Amino acid sequence: MNFDKKTREVVVGHESNEPEFKTLEASLRGSYENEDQDRSISLNLRIKKNETIWLSAKFAGLIPVAKILITKDRVRYYEKINGIYFDGNFKELSDWLGTDLDFKKVQNLLIGQALYSLRSENWQYSISERGYQLKSEPGKTIAKTFFIKPGSFRLLGEQLVREAQKQSVTVTYPEYQKIGEEAFPKKIEIIANQKADNTKISINYRSVNFDVNLSFPYEVPDSYEKTEIID
After folding, report:
1. 59, 39 in Cβ contact below 8 A?
2. With the CA atoms of 85, 91, 97 and 98 taken in that order, what torsion angle do they form, in degrees rounded to the nearest 10?
3. CATH number of 208's domain
4. Number of folded domains in the chain?
């Protein structure tokens, strides 16, 4: 891409800030809210960078309720309360959140990097009270806007809009923390809109450790029933 000097500085600055690790283990507090339900849950997250994302969910920090295993081309999930499981690709997950997802985008969302590569297209650059702003050129199927903090080049937020489908996803990073030498999100807020439906997801990192030995246990009980959607 033919970036001007300032845009290139922002793109390179943000990319160079990606946390460096081989594996990651974290404990999280998550919440999920829409018109039908409002849930809070404890989560254990494990990542083998660029290969595997594993999540285990517990009520009250004690009662296992679900596991998720994501690899480069596969999404797997089972839920104990209803005895169901999902095994498929990223299409259903993308439909659920209203934006195209793949392994890299899910990983980037969790570690504070832009969902889309900032080298993927030319941007309209500006600066405001919210920081550096990179906005996609008019006429794109997905209108993308990224907000990046001056100086540190950390991602403050991003918005993806499919106007024709009346879909949008807004992700904000209101707080970061220092883990060793790396800046890492402390809190992530996600708002997904699909026409009249509104979903809010909050992620709060309670602890984060890099480069620890990890396993990714995942086995669906024989009695569980396969579902075609992640609910």
Report:
1. no
2. -150
3. 2.50.20.10
4. 1
- Specify if 164 maps to a domain: yes
Tens of pLDDT along 108-157?
999 999 999 999 899 999 998 889 999 999 989 899 999 999 999 999 99
* DSSP-assigned letter for residue 3: -
Question: How does pLDDT run across 52-81, given as a tens digit for each residue?
Answer: 999 999 875 566 789 999 999 899 999 998
Q: Give this prediction's pTM.
A: 0.91
Angle (CA) 19-25-27 rounded to 5° is 110
Which backbone phi and psi does 210 adopt, to 5 degrees?
Answer: -100, 150
172 strand-pairing partners: 157, 189
Residue 50 region by backbone torsions, left for phi larger than 0, else alpha for psi between -120 and 50, else beta? left
Torsion 150-151-156-158 (CA) sign: positive
